[in-house]
Specification:
Length: 163
């Protein structure tokens, strides 16, 4: 009986105390990322995937052409500044943050102000009060502070603060 307990303790006790790596330290399985998204990120050699926010990418129709576009959390390779890379189905991409200009106000340009994000579909009840938002929208959220809506106006990205 004692030997069974010692064997079990020897094998399972280390597992109980094992440290889990934070999500930002995990490697991305390349087979879990759409081909179009990997190709888009490769066009920006100064940035890499940032898995600090889950999900690290979302898909929607951000430009209203009826095809799937992607928004992916990225960070610059040299100084780790965070940003969002929008990858449109037509092959065009737009980088916000990670060293590129942003459309939202920033108190500290080196600090990423958002904790989470989500997709809001075109036609949702939340967007019905904003006639200028004609396509899918990305909501960027700051815990206890609100956030805002990031949307494509047909020519460029715009920002609308939400409380």
């Amino acid at each position: 009986m004692k030997s069974s307990f010692l064997i079990a303790a020897f094998f399972f006790l280390p597992l109980a105390f094992a440290q889990q790596k934070p999500i930002e330290d995990t490697k991305i399985n390349p087979f879990s990322v759409p081909d179009e998204l990997r190709a888009c990120v490769r066009t920006k050699p100064d940035v890499e995937f940032d898995t600090g926010v889950n999900p690290f990418y979302i898909s929607g129709d951000f430009d209203g052409d009826g095809f799937t576009d992607f928004a992916v959390q990225v960070k610059s390779k040299n100084n780790q500044r965070k940003g969002i890379l929008f990858c449109f189905a037509n092959g065009v991409s737009t980088l916000l943050g990670a060293g590129a200009p942003v459309v939202w106000p920033q108190d500290d340009p080196g600090k990423w102000p958002f904790d989470s994000w989500m997709l809001i579909r075109k036609g949702s009840k939340h967007l019905s009060i904003y006639p200028q938002m004609k396509f899918d929208v990305v909501a960027l959220i700051m815990a206890d502070e609100g956030g805002g809506l990031l949307f494509w106006d047909g020519h460029k990205f715009r920002w609308r603060r939400e409380e």
